[in-house]
Amino acid sequence: MNATIKLEKKHFPVLLDELVSIISPLYGGTFIDCTFGQGGYSKEILRHQENRVIAIDRDKKVLSEAEELKKKFGRRFRFFHSTFKEINKISKKDQNIKAIIFDLGYSTNQILDLSKGISFKSKGKLNMKMGINEFSAHDAINNLSEDSLSKIFKYFGEEKNARLIAKKIILERKKKTINTENLVRVIESCYKKKYTKKHKATKVFQSLRIFVNQEISQLIHGLVNSFKILPVGGLIAVVTFHSLEDKIVKFFFKNYSEVSNNSRYLPINENSLKLFNLPQKKPIIPSHHELKKNLSSRSAKLRYAIKLNNSNNFKLLYEKFNYLINIENLYLDI
Ligand SMILES: C[S@@+](CC[C@H](N)C(=O)[O-])C[C@H]1O[C@@H](n2cnc3c(N)ncnc32)[C@H](O)[C@@H]1O
Fold it and tell me: What is the pLDDT of residue 5?
């Protein structure tokens, strides 16, 4: 027998059972899977005949999986190679959308794909592009100023040696172009302690991934544009993987689920409307059972909210996180 072995590690859809229990009361309509990946969520939703899925992913490498689903589910499944901040151009309000789902971060395939250079275990030219990018980690590390690099490491990675690492990068860059191995060495040389709990390059690599993929602006615009196309009664669910993402999602849901001006002497205006119902204040985290099966789900947090009212006013959200958007905009100096 001629057996073909597929050398791909399976991506376990994170918090799948928990997500299904939240969205299944809404079954019978269109669901938008903003982060298709290997289709774990989409396939589960499509198991129910009455559901349709619109899926989005920025990575071209998921196209073959999307083609499989098109063959199997026909018109019930549509795929768009795009970033999710464009969701309002992909879908319109009149499509009976029941829920919009985000599973942020990277799929196992992307992490294992050494050509993407997402992990500090990769070799050669820096990259980190997920797909549909303006620039790479190579461009950022080899062109940005010490000040810009230091901000990226500090705010996107909470790296305590941010300034020193940035300084050393500038010095190293005068001698040669910096690749993945050089960068790891520079970072390691900035730590006094020989042993640290996590790899010393973890935070800088995380910060560069966020910067290269403009993850903060993607998330903020993605949430706001999702809200715009979602009918009242629809649900937004987001799985995050790091504290910065979670901070944004938590603020978005919590801030707009509280009435900001409830004085009975003042007229109700758009700013004081409650935009969401928040059934659960605390995030849902993976069970022990899931952690045993898939340890990489350990930092996942699922938050969700149900839309109550329409609004166009997200000024507070943009004001609160403008300092992060400004750091992402430093790419304009490349
Ligand atoms: C964690 S994986 C999703 C896994 C998926 N839920 C599954 O079960 O197979 C995240 C996916 O989202 C995609 N992605 C990340 N940010 C995106 C963005 N801003 N727009 C579109 N796709 C994005 C990545 O390319 C990746 O394929």
Answer: 38
Same domain for 96 and 244?
yes
Question: Which residues have any ligand 1 atom within 6 Å of their CB?
Answer: 11, 13, 35, 37-41, 56-59, 62, 83-84, 103, 105-107, 130-131, 218
Q: For residues 206 and 249, what is the distance between their CA atoms, to the nearest angstrom?
A: 18
pLDDT at residue number 194: 82
Separation between Cα atoms, residue 254 and residue 116, nearest integer Å: 35
Which pLDDT score is estimated for 261? 55
**Is 83 domain-assigned?**
yes
CA 85 to centroid of ligand 1, rounded, Å:
12
Residues in the chain where the model's pLDDT stays below 70: 1-9, 260-271
Return d(Cα 235, Cα 101) in angstroms, integer: 8
Range(s) of the domain holding residue 40: 16-109+215-313
Q: Whose CA is nearest to atom 20 of ligand 1?
A: 83
Q: In this predicted structure, what is the pLDDT of residue 119?
A: 87
- Give nearest CA residue, ligand 1 atom 2: 107
